[in-house]
Specification:
This protein is an alpha/beta fold and about 500 residues long. It has two domains: about 5-145, Up-down Bundle (Ferritin), CATH 1.20.1260; about 155-455, Rossmann fold (3-Layer(aba) Sandwich), CATH 3.40.50. The protein has 19 helices and nine strands. It has helices at about 5-20, 25-55, 75, 80-100, 110-115, 125-135, 140-150, 170-180, 195-205, 210, 215-225, 235-245, 290-295, 300-315, 325-330, 335-345, 415-420, 440-445, 470-490; strands at about 185-190, 225-230, 255, 270-275, 315-325, 350-355, 370-375, 385-390, 435-440. The protein has a nine-stranded mixed beta sheet, with helices on both faces. Helix 1 runs antiparallel to helix 6, helix 2 (about 25-55) packs parallel to helix 12 and helix 4 packs across helix 6 (about 125-135). The chain is globular, with a radius of gyration of 28 Å. Keywords: Methyltransferase, Restriction system, S-adenosyl-L-methionine, Transferase. InterPro entries: D12N6_MeTrfase_N, DNA_Adenine_Mtase, DNA_methylase_A-5, DNA_methylase_N6_adenine_CS, SAM-dependent_MTases_sf, T1MK-like_N_sf. This is site-specific DNA-methyltransferase (adenine-specific). Pfam families: HsdM_N (PF12161), N6_Mtase (PF02384). It comes from Pseudomonas iranensis.
């Protein structure tokens, strides 16, 4: 976990940007991203040099040649003159980043960095930020990742078209429930800052480290072929790419792609696991949307189109865990009903976790759910597992203060994971409990309504009230007491 000291250092850097004339949170993130990227390149070069020295071989795929040593973080940070530092980074280091290519001639990072702009306005601010970043120890992989997540958490306003960050603890819950495997090809078609892909990488590193680092082929697969992300926001692509790099994934396939457009309709059946929180708001013109998605579900609503997209992108047998607004579960339009029918009848709908409306505050107050299904093209739904999440470990107001995580009434997430992992034994649970199973036939009989409120039984506690006679007697006694008090006060007056 990131320490209070490092948080304080990041806060100081943030304040330095603010007072230095950059107040847009995304611009601050971008500029810090570029500097962290430059610092990371120097670290990677140092690792290559140490390996070469240890093996007695030449440096494998060096990032910097001997004539570019002055472009390395460890060298230019020693410059005492702020103006010289500014000129070097703006005119030499930054252009150098844009020319970098991977082993295939073009890395994901370089592709997204081509459009990058260096906007730190003054030499004094740059020198100050370089010194501050250099003072933060980022040798530990987890520290780098946590530091970056903390920075991303400072983006306090929602984007347009329903885009906002998914809380990291919700992402971790979803990834833990899906338990990615080393053979998975993982995709987030609306990846933003790549939070789901980062969490999946962390899960694989923690639970399957020996397998993913078993040999060169396994390492290459992890770094190049496992993770795929799409987004059409160039800023998000740069931030997401850096987020993956700082979490140890060298070259994920993060692409500039409008997932719903006709131009990318040919991409299908490629992924074994989809993790996503697609945009909720907005609608598209029929003309701009992929025709094959319109064939699956005739609608303009982006949340329904994304569900159709997930079914198209998944391999047969592929799994998905995605966040949807509650309206998807009970909407009465023809498109809503048809999509739910397809999930239940033509594929295997496995689970629905209903989340309280405060989970996405302060960005939005919409109620949401986690939808979990497997693409089969041949049915397979027997029972659907429901869970009524009532607490996620944080207050459900705009402040989102951390609560006592070990108490179930404050944090349901450990219970959700435990019950999900043993869901085959949940059939005997009553509908009054937080989790239970509902047979497919009952769901079909309810017009494929997937709202938990349709199936959960509410127990009303009997409350006994005092009789009216007793209440009146108590009121009379209070009046007598009040009158006595008033008489005593009157007696004290001169």
């Amino acid at each position: 976990m990131i320490t209070g000291a490092i948080k304080s250092q990041v806060d100081q850097i943030w304040n330095a940007f603010w007072s230095g004339g950059i107040s847009n949170p995304m611009e601050v993130i971008e500029q810090m991203t570029y500097l962290l990227f430059i610092k990371r390149l120097d670290e990677l070069q140092t690792v290559k040099e140490k390996k070469a020295a240890r093996t007695g071989k030449t440096i494998e795929s060096p990032i910097f040649n001997p004539y570019q040593a002055h472009l390395r973080w460890s060298q230019f940070k020693l410059l005492g003159d702020a103006s010289s530092l500014y000129t070097l980074i703006a005119e030499k280091v930054f252009p150098f980043i844009k020319t970098l290519g991977g082993e295939d001639g073009q890395s994901t990072y370089a592709a997204h960095m081509k459009d990058a702009r260096f906007t730190i306005p003054t030499p004094a601010l740059l020198a100050k930020v370089v010194d501050m970043l250099d003072a933060i120890s980022m040798e530990d992989r987890d520290t780098k990742g946590d530091l970056y997540e903390y920075m991303l958490g400072k983006i306090a306003s929602a984007g347009q078209n329903g885009q906002f960050r998914t809380p990291r603890h919700i992402i971790k819950l979803i990834v833990d429930m899906m338990a990615p495997r080393p053979g998975d090809t993982i995709c987030d078609p609306a990846c933003g800052t790549a939070g789901f892909l980062v969490a999946a990488a962390e899960y694989l590193d923690k639970h399957h480290r020996d397998e993913i680092y078993r040999d060169t082929e396994s390492v290459n697969r992890f770094n190049h072929d496992t993770f795929h992300g799409f987004d059409f926001d160039s800023t998000m692509l740069r931030v997401g790419s850096m987020n993956m790099l700082l979490h140890g994934v060298e070259n994920p396939a993060i692409e500039n792609r409008d997932s719903l457009s006709e131009g990318h309709a040919a991409v299908e059946g490629q992924f074994s696991l989809i993790l996503a929180n697609p945009p909720f708001a907005g609608s598209l013109d029929y003309e701009s949307c992929a025709k094959d998605l319109q064939q699956i579900v005739k609608t303009k609503k982006t949340e329904l189109l994304f569900l159709a997209l997930f079914l198209r992108l998944l391999k047969t047998g592929g799994r998905a865990a995605v966040i949807v607004p509650d309206g998807v579960l009970f909407g009465s339009s023809k498109a809503h009903k048809e999509l739910r029918r397809m999930l239940v009848e033509e594929h295997k709908l496995e689970g629905i976790v209903s989340m309280p409306s405060g989970v996405f505050r302060p960005y939005a107050g919409v109620s949401t759910a986690i939808l979990i299904f497997t693409k089969t093209n041949s049915g397979g739904t027997d029972n659907v597992w429901f869970y009524d999440m009532q607490a996620d470990g944080y207050s459900l107001d705009d402040k989102r203060n951390l609560l006592a995580a070990e108490k179930h009434e404050c944090n349901n997430l450990p219970d959700i994971l435990a019950r999900w992992q043993k869901r085959d034994g949940e059939a005997a649970r009553e509908r009054t409990e937080q989790s239970f199973q509902v047979p497919k036939a009952e769901i079909a009989g309810n017009d494929y309504d997937l709202s938990i409120n349709r199936y959960k039984q509410v127990v009303y506690k009997q409350v006994e009230h005092d009789s009216p006679q007793k209440i009146l007697a108590e009121l009379k006694a209070l009046e007598v007491e009040i009158l006595q008090g008033m008489e005593e006060l009157e007696g004290m007056l001169p």
